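Rotation project, supervised by the postdoc (A.L.). Task for the rotation student: set up a whole-complex structure prediction and record inputs and outputs verbatim in this book. Inputs entered:
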Amino acid sequence: MKQITAVNDFVVRFANVNGTGSASANTLFAKTIFRMGIPVTPKNIFPSNIQGLPTWYEVRISEKGYLGRRDGVDVMVSVNPQSMRQDVDAVKPGGYFVYDSTKPLRADFFRDDLHYIGVPMTELCMQVFSDARKIQLFKNIVYVGALAVLLDMDVAVLRDTIAAQFKGKDKLIEANYQALDLGMNYIREHYEYPIGLRLETRDLVGDKIIVDGNTACALGALYGGATVAAWYPITPSTSIMDAFEKYALKHRLDPTGRKKFAIIQAEDELSSIGMVIGAAWNGARAFTSTSGPGVSLMSEFLGLAYFAEIPVVLVNVQRGGPSTGMPTRTQQADILSSAYASHGDTRHVLLFPDTPKECFDFTADAFDLADRLQTPIFVMTDLDLGMNDHMSEPFDWHDARPYDRGKVLTAEDLDNVEQWGRYLDVDGDGIPYRTIPGTHAKKGSYFTRGTSHDEFARYTESSDAYVRNVDRLLVKWDTAKNITPAPELYQDGKRSPFGMLFFGTTTASALEAKDELEADGLILDAIRLRACPFDETVEVFIHGHESIFVVEQNRDAQMRSLLINEMNINPAKLIPVLNYDGMPITADYIAQSIRTHFA
Amino acid sequence: MSYILPPFRHPDLPTNELGFARKDYEGALSTLCAGCGHDSISSAIIQACYEMNIEPHRLAKLSGIGCSSKTPAYFLGNSHGFNSVHGRMPSVATGANLANRQLLYLGVSGDGDSASIGIGQFVHAIRRNLNIVYIVMNNGCYGLTKGQDSATADAGSVSKKGHANPFTAINMTALAIEMGANFVARSFSGDKHQLIPLIKAAMNHPGFALIDVVSPCVTFNNNVGSTKSYDFVREHKEATSEFDFVPEHDEITADYAEGSSLDVAMHDGSIIHLSKVAKGWDPRNRFSALSALNNAEQRGEILTGLLFVHPEGRDLHSVFHTVEAPLNSLQEKDLCPGKGVLAQINDSFR
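Outputs recorded:
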């Protein structure tokens, strides 16, 4: 029978029941590989449920450093009877099926092109642990032990990782070691090992870290000086506020234990964005985190923030829509609803990070950008980036970095200024000067409103004043092009008449597809968007290529529409490559789609 | 009311302790209808701030959408103001208050704004004991859209078009008491004598302070059959007590009638003095206040005055245990943990 063989290049998928403690065992497996110096990318595929439904954890190991999701499973660890049928079917021919053999596997689950490795995980645990919860928990560690021997993992690293994970809880560490031994010994006694797939220690990780994007955004907000965080719980953004609170409690207390921050769980997203607007208007750095349905609710307020020119930072961790959609699956499907959130002529600045490092940087930068541009800034991540661990460059900060609060007048400035108008464009960049309530006893007060206003914040129904105002906002939009993160180009000059364009979590798979196609002789130039509005580089790239494949994760080619709408582009030039099944896009899918176009 | 403001003001106008004249608390000219109750409330706000020696720039005024929410443009022209979106002033005020706990916040709303789309934010601001003076200019109808019933219109109240409102009214004061507000009052725009001290006491209360002010809409809801017309309110309002507010540093000079008076000491030593207190009612008791409101409603009376007061309570900042300094005043050194800490955080992800 065929047997898949590879070193440091395969996919392991765990099929579990959610709420059974499998997450920490699965993370342990991935983290150990990372610590062995091998590039790894784990992805959680989970239900919108607390306990009892199927959940999967997929680990891709790639010596070449490809961090996107890959189609096909080489090793399945299946401990969930509910999903076993589909789990058996998901494994590639010649692959391996590791299962709990406490009860015999159903006859019809046997395929003649798979290698079956039964480990009586429950039975082994029952011999050692007494209560049901422990049996359930340590069963997960038993399969990690089994895999360690089957894949020839570095057991010392594995044990260290356990010790680090449960630091200070010696009893728990001991119990984990015990469970680990159960799995390892069982394989050693019953099977030939290692199997055709092996892990070999490498030095390919360097000083990288492995962390989820939501934690990175939270740290970006902490470092960026956010003091007011208003939010409403929604998957997949919730862990941003969990992390923000965790780190703020550690690093933002005064010596007496009082908080230099306020986190408020609002009654809904209508309110959370209102709180952010109120706090930002009053001079605090404030942010919210949400997902598509939250942005829909916030839309009216976002229009006010755009028109009244209030700095707002909003992290949108996108999920599958429309409506409640697929709340635990990933998409990049809020591009248009975020870019143009609210009625009337409204447009917003969007940032598109692609790694945790950029989640950190862009969230911190978003506070500077919001203050400088006096407008909402959206940090556009998604469930894949936000909730899954990703290998990333480490976070960095320069201690001398000041917070750029933009054009805010102090009491002294107000004493010296001859003429001040809240909406008066003095510098020609479309950005006026603002004042914070309470600054000066006699000067600088004004009435903030969503109704039409003149340069001096006075209510007006004058057509001329209205047009002057909204046209100035376009000047500001142009200013934003020069201070938002520039796109990344992946070649010097032009190598091909064809290009590919992508952003965010599509990046890893797109770059892998690019390599794959190049190996076939099809060269593509590539650009990664990092912000909207689009700067000149994007325009030059698009105009400089015959056709551009726009790769994104939604049905309606929303980024393509945004590009067409924002720049003067012939739509025929932009060829959509779309994945919208809720699973992270794969390189094979992208490469295949592009090949089909040339066929 | 639109008219041309005389450009000349007498140079020897009296000033308050801070040296501000009453005109320093005025705003732009009102564009509301002549005789609108809201203008009287604006005037009472101006007078209260003048008498309370408020520094105009230390007060922020916020509102939602509607006739009432336009009024912050017509008073306190030297204060920052924020006219937000419909029903959502409470959230903006919450954020503003979190950013700077040292300013005085005045929220102005109407019955359309607070009792319909805004009712969620209204009750949640109360739950959190947001430190704000919250004035509802309550006329039972939508003026800007030409006279539709609002959610505070009494059942049976007849609109200008001649229809009797078939739905139950939301009583903002009872709702606020029920939700845990510690300062709840009702007044009438035509009763300056009562309204001004109420506003002063509310500004002194360290938490959520509601003043529901019945404020007739002269254009759409001042007709016979309306329970929010000037005539009806004058005939049916029943004061729970005479009311006076004595700031902490003032001597008590007024003579109060013996017997039925009651003093409530505020957190800072100022005193709320109530006299001619209605029988069988204790404004310090939540249930007594609710019961009095309920009884008055049965009798068709509009109970006014300070309905409930509990001068204690932790506001949002106390609950959150935030630092004394305004959060908006904190700088890089206060907020950023720095490169060294980040290196440790990085290590925790390896």
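Student's summary: The mean pLDDT of chain A is 97.
Supervisor addendum: Chain A is about 40% helix and 20% strand.
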